[in-house]
Structures are given as structure tokens and as C-alpha cells.
Amino acid sequence: xAKLDGTYIYESFRPDTAPPTPLVPWAPxxxxxxxxxxxxxxxxxxxIPLPPGAPVPELVLTITGRITPAVAGKLPEGxxxxxxxxxxxxxELRGYFVHGGTGxxxxxxxxxxxxxxxxxxxxxxxxxxxxxxx
Length: 134
Known about the structure:
60% strand; mainly beta; 0% helix; 8-stranded antiparallel β-barrel; single chain; globular
């Protein structure tokens, strides 16, 4: 079973109706720090930097979830994560490990379930990427 232990750079993107760009950054590059236990349970935090002058330097979301097993010939091993915090927000992520690249990478989809920190409507979804930094 893969582990998600470590520190990652997190970036996400959302749909944009303004041509010619179909996707725009949703969250600025952020830091995800996580650990995985022996059962595949994931815990950690996502620190999203805020603009200069904000009352705090970053918004911290609590991350929980699990490693998901591969399904032979159908789905690679992956993760299901939930991020909670900041104004009662809830976001769900489903991603997959990409092996064979230059490092540990996870790609997938994020869905804003409730009170998105960036103010997007509930149900907004888009791609995300996690790139390990340590």
C-alpha cells in the first residue's frame, strides 16, 4: 500500500467562463503536510497562503482521508481526502498516484461541498495536483 507521508505542494484549478482560458488557478500554491498510518488512514493539514495584509498569513485546513486500493485494470491506487476549516468549508478530493515520473505525484479532482474558502459555489469542481517536496 502506498503512503502519502510527507510534504507536498498543492495546486488546484477551477473552470472559468472567460475565453480563452477554460481553467484558472483556484488556490495559490499551498503546502500539504500529511502522515499515513498502517491501515491507510491519512491525517494532516493544508496551509493556503493568504494575500499580504490579511489578519493571518495562511488559512489552515484539516485534512483527513484514506489511501484507496487499486482495482486491477480499472483504477490505480489513490487517495480520498476531505479538507475542512476556514469559514466552515468542506472540500472533497479524489486522486491517483502517478508512478514513473520525476517524483511522487498525485493528480485528481476537487469538489467544493460547502463554503469554499475562495468563495466558489457549492458543487464547483476542478483538477488538482500534489507534488512531493521532501
